[in-house]
């Protein structure tokens, strides 16, 4: 698994990398926010983010990461823990550790966050998803109406619906849909995404499974 360590203190960075290397992680280093954002890829499984970076505020870096990726983020800082923790969680961070920290604690938190993410993924992929009588079978890539007739979807239409089904009611950002379905986060593709969502809705007919979350993305409707 690939972990990114965003830390401008070379001594701290080296110690973190040494510990993570010993645990078998593929570690990528970044000294500031700009290089972290430039280095982030779909292969990044987790980000260890120091908030005290030289070029931009760590909270802004977290916000930008969350716009680009759903990789878990663990924040580290010596700032006021309550205020920073709340703000970090609001921006989409998954965990928080206060400096100075023990390297064993960092490792334990990394493993805990990754376990939680694997559990969420396993639960999301555990069998077909049924909403309003419509069955979305992720394994066979089939969508069945309540009368068991099949909805004929294109590959990208199913990729969109399948990703929403995996999250089961959680909002999936446009950026993530673009990266997962089209392999790019380019803003110019947003209109293409909207066209595919509109086509998907037409094919599903009366079953309003795809909900728009204005300014953010889409989610699969939840059952009552």
Automatic annotation (TrEMBL):
The lineage of its organism: Bacteria, Bacillati, Actinomycetota, Actinomycetes, Micrococcales. PANTHER family: REGULATOR OF RPOS, SENSORY TRANSDUCTION PROTEIN REGX3. SMART domains: REC (SM00448), Trans_reg_C (SM00862). Residues 126-222 form the OmpR/PhoB-type domain. Keywords: DNA-binding, Phosphoprotein, Transcription, Transcription regulation. Residues 126-222 bind DNA. PROSITE patterns: OMPR_PHOB (PS51755), RESPONSE_REGULATORY (PS50110). This is Sensory transduction protein RegX3. It holds the Pfam family Response_reg. The keyword DNA-binding applies. The modification 4-aspartylphosphate is found at residue 50. InterPro entries: CheY-like_superfamily, OmpR/PhoB-type_DNA-bd, Sig_transdc_resp-reg_C-effctor, Sig_transdc_resp-reg_receiver, WalR-like, WH-like_DNA-bd_sf. It comes from Georgenia alba. Gene3D superfamilies: 3.40.50.2300, 6.10.250.690, Winged helix-like DNA-binding domain superfamily/Winged helix DNA-binding domain. Residues 2-114 form the Response regulatory domain.
